[in-house]
Amino acid sequence: MTLKEFIKQFRQYSNDEEKPYLFSKEEIEQCIAEAMKWYSKKNPILRESNIDTIPKQKTYPLPTDYQTWYEGLENVDIVGNDVIVENPCYGRITFLYYANRRLCEVAKEDLQFFFEYCFGALLEKEVLESIKEENKTGTVKAMKLGRGLDLTFDECKNIRQELLLLAREKKQKFFENIKGNRKGIWI
Known about the structure:
This protein is α+β, with helices and mostly antiparallel strands. It is built from four helices and eight strands. The protein is about 40% helix and about 20% strand.
């Protein structure tokens, strides 16, 4: 699934299909990136990479999606996100590493949990921002929640707490789904 397709389906899922949107494209993208980090820690993918070494250069960057190595980096040092080669010469280091997944590599059955996580995280953010805004201005803010639900906070004093609980329940389903044994080595 592409990012564009995910955003379209997320808008359908959250009933946030009419402009002005409650959740901006950038907010959704940021939320997906956050969820991908969590998902990838529990479900990394094995990738192959190469480092072409040259004389006089000791430091080489690791791939941006790198988590930890699987094989091939036994004879080098890793400091931060760099490989340190003690005696560099012309050559190639080929290695396998555990990597962060891309959205297109997420199992179809797991996408529902990404929708729920994003909806929960974005809803939580909206509720917390409305509380902060009300504390600044002393006014009650209305909120469009999708799925045909528009609320003003004077309708129910405890609505914020209920919305925060709903948001956290949505996010929790995502974390329950990715539970399990980690693969690889984490530092």
